[in-house]
């Protein structure tokens, strides 16, 4: 170790350049927003004058938009970026690195195919990290013998796969993703590459064959005593606790090169029909207890079953934050972004959420750390267990000795007692210990409570993406997913964990504002719906709701619309969107506010009055070949006659009807001179029409199964025609 090496930091933090320029832009927009609100207050129509109530409604919508825009500035006001020094970590700590427990959660082998789950497991088993300090746990909330069989197959394949990955330094280390990308192997290991590929294809065929049939035959069952757990009448919702240590890292299990294998554990917590299991949060808490009994790693990584590791060095990156001598003791969790490997070139459904991963979370990091988003996150075990940060007592991550006195069978039996339905009764699990219960986005409130316990979090966005997952491939899946997210986030702000009240004096105001930005997604639906419907209808009837284009009061409206659109486009291009991708993102943003967030708002209201209960909807990870072909061609998938699509279609049809009839009526009824006072409403109708071009194509041109059903088209036309006969005030 060189002179002073021990004092060099393991990471550095840089502030984003150009902050002053952005601050000036933001202040100018704020001034324009204030002028708009002043105009609305000064020129409100008199009692009895047409358009008075619409004017008041627009004023309230604009007040909300202005308030929400101010909240979003917390995400862009103070962006910071981190860089790690893994070489210093390796030099300084060498054999003193802590144990790492990795949690992978799955729930349904029909929605989350076992081969996908196994690829994720194999990718994290092959991390560039001492394998004797690595333990991987698969939580199977489906309690499926098919998933257990798939994990057994993976344990065998890992003996060849892990040494191959480390020998040739390949990335990614999900075999399915690797062989899909690699047309040939390394020059000095082509024969070995072909052998590994053959082994993977055999494993893939075996797993898919069993998964498709849904039955594990008797010949397979004889291969492992663990199948005896499924010898009775067990079902996914009614079965005993199951813990099986498939690879025990303590007993010297080795790969084909003679190196120790990581510990590999299968867990299915007890399920009974009359007991609530608390969804993913309950599974994570069960994993916390089981892992503490078996390996008790000081660091925990949790990933969704579709989020495979794309960067084998991220454990060391995370440790640079946790083990930094000056600041490491403050860090509770390190969150990496969620990225997806199936996003189309122009990001048809806005799945890449680059504005969040490349901008928003860096902004949150500037105020004390990002949200915990449920996957791709490294945790300090003590913080997850509810321990409060104490600056006078630094908790260091240290290597812990493994327990060798107990056999695998003994550990399994002890672990089973920790995941029964009754274990958490009359305890603080789900409240003060572990992940929080009672909310569809348990990860967010868990991260918030950890930060309110005095800890800090870190957002790390490596150049080589840490994790890649599977994004939704239909519009309906996107709307369902965002309905769950926005509903859960809105429930947070109405609960005792509201960042405004719960976070007061515990986290920074900037971080409170950042949390509120996501918690208020659902209420944003109401002003958006109002703005998309009311101005076009009033234009149809020749009633102006905005200042004349020649009036100086028109300038703040024009300024806000123009500069925010330009800024949004420039920012999107800078973070990696194409111009068409940016436009697709605007469309999906609009659709979420029209047909996803309103249902989140409605369901939350029902829950608040006790009519409905929280539910957890798993986003499907499978789709038909036809759907995937349309997705690859960037053709939006509609297909069903659901209420969300009726809303989208109705708004889409309303705007061109109002635009065409309104423009025709102006010269006939009121004269061309009225065009200036109607310009803003013409622009709204025009933009909504342009953004819905795929809807018109799906109604009138397409013949495939993903088109908009005729019934939806007829309903939307009928509802839109009512706009012509509505009495306006």
TrEMBL record:
Listed GO MF terms: cellulose synthase (UDP-forming) activity
Membrane topology: Multi-pass membrane protein
UniProt keyword Repeat, yes or no: no
Catalytic site: 141, 443
Lineage: Eukaryota, Viridiplantae, Streptophyta, Embryophyta, Tracheophyta
Annotated localization: Golgi apparatus membrane
Pfam families on file: Cellulose_synt
Stretches that traverse the bilayer: 21-41, 53-71, 515-533, 553-570, 643-666, 678-696, 708-726
Record keywords: Cell wall biogenesis/degradation, Glycosyltransferase, Golgi apparatus, Membrane, Transferase, Transmembrane, Transmembrane helix
Residues the record lists as binding Mn(2+): 280, 304
Record-stated family: Belongs to the glycosyltransferase 2 family. Plant cellulose synthase-like E subfamily.
A cellular component annotation (GO) from this entry: Golgi membrane
PANTHER family: X-BOX TRANSCRIPTION FACTOR-RELATED (PTHR13301)
Chief subcellular location: Golgi
Described purpose of this protein according to its UniProt entry: Thought to be a Golgi-localized beta-glycan synthase that polymerize the backbones of noncellulosic polysaccharides (hemicelluloses) of plant cell wall.
GO biological process: cell wall organization; cellulose biosynthetic process; plant-type cell wall organization or biogenesis
InterPro entries (alphabetical): Cellulose_synth, Nucleotide-diphossugar_trans
Annotated binding of UDP-alpha-D-glucose, by residue: 112, 141
Name of the protein: Cellulose synthase-like protein E6
Organism expressing this protein natively: Rhynchospora tenuis
Record bears the keyword Transmembrane: yes
């Amino acid at each position: 170790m060189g002179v002073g090496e021990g004092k060099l930091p393991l990471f550095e933090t840089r502030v984003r350049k150009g902050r002053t320029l952005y601050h000036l832009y933001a202040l100018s927009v704020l001034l324009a927003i204030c002028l708009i609100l002043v105009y609305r207050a000064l020129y409100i129509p008199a009692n009895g004058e047409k358009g008075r109530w619409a004017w008041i409604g627009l004023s309230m919508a604009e007040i909300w938009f202005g308030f929400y825009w101010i909240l979003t500035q917390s995400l862009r006001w103070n962006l910071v970026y981190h860089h790690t020094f893994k070489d210093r970590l390796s030099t300084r700590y060498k054999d003193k690195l802590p144990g790492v427990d990795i949690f992978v959660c799955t729930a349904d082998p029909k929605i989350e195919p076992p081969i996908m789950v196994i690829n994720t497991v194999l990718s994290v088993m092959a991390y560039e990290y001492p394998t004797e300090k690595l333990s991987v746990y698969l939580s199977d909330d489906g309690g499926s013998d098919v998933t257990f069989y798939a994990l057994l197959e993976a344990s065998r394949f890992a003996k060849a796969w892990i040494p191959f990955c480390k020998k040739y330094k390949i990335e990614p280390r999900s075999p399915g993703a690797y062989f899909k990308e690699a047309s040939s192997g390394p020059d000095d290991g082509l024969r070995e590459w072909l052998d590994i590929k053959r082994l993977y294809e055999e494993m893939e065929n075996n797993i898919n064959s069993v998964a498709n049939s849904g039955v594990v035959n008797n010949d397979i069952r004889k291969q492992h005593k663990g199948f005896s757990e499924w010898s009775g009448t067990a079902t996914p919702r009614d079965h005993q606790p199951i813990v099986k240590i498939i690879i025990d890292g303590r007993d010297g299990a080795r790969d084909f090169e003679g190196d120790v294998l990581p510990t590999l554990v299968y867990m299915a917590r007890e399920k009974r029909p009359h007991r609530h299991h608390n969804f993913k949060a309950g599974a994570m808490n069960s994993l916390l207890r089981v892992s503490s009994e078996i390996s008790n790693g000081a660091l925990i990584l949790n990933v969704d079953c579709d989020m495979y590791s794309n960067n084998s060095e991220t454990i060391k990156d995370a440790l640079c934050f946790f083990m930094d001598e000056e600041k490491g003791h403050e860090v509770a969790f390190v969150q990496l972004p969620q990225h997806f490997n199936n996003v189309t070139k122009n990001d048809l459904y806005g799945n890449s959420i680059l504005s969040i991963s490349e901008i928003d979370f860096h902004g949150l990091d500037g105020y004390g750390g990002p949200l915990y988003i449920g996957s791709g996150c490294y945790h300090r075990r003590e913080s997850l267990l509810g321990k409060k940060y104490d600056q006078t007592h630094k908790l260091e991550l240290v290597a812990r000795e493994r327990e060798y006195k107990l056999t695998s069978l003994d550990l399994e039996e002890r672990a089973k007692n920790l995941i029964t339905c009754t274990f958490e009764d009359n305890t603080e699990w789900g409240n003060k210990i572990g992940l929080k219960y009672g909310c569809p986005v348990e990860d967010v409130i868990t991260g918030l409570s950890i930060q309110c316990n005095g800890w800090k979090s870190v957002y790390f966005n490596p150049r080589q993406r840490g994790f890649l997952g599977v994004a939704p491939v239909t519009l309906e899946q996107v709307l369902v997913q965002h309905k769950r997210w926005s509903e859960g986030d809105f429930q947070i702000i109405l609960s005792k964990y509201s960042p405004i009240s719960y976070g007061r004096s515990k986290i920074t105001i900037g971080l409170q504002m950042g949390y509120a930005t996501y918690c208020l997604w659902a209420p944003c639906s109401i002003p958006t719906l109002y703005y998309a419907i009311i101005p076009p209808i009033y234009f149809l009837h020749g009633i102006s709701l905005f200042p004349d284009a020649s009036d100086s009061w028109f300038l703040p409206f024009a300024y806000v619309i123009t500069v925010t659109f330009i800024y949004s486009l420039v920012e999107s291009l800078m973070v990696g969107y194409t111009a068409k991708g940016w436009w697709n993102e605007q469309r999906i943003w609009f659709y979420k506010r029209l047909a996803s967030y309103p249902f989140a708002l409605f369901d939350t209201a029902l829950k608040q009055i006790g009519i409905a209960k929280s539910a957890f909807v798993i986003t499907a990870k499978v789709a038909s070949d036809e759907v995937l072909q349309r997705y690859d061609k960037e053709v939006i998938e509609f297909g069903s006659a659901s209420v969300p699509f009726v809303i989208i279609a109705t708004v889409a049809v309303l705007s061109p009807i109002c635009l065409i009839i309104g423009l025709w009526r102006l010269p006939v009824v009121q004269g061309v001179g009225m065009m200036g006072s109607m310009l803003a409403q013409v622009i709204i109708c025009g933009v909504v029409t342009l953004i819905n071009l795929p809807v018109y194509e799906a109604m009138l041109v397409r013949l495939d199964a993903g088109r908009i059903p005729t019934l939806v088209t007829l309903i939307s036309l009928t509802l839109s025609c009512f706009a012509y006969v509505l009495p306006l005030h």
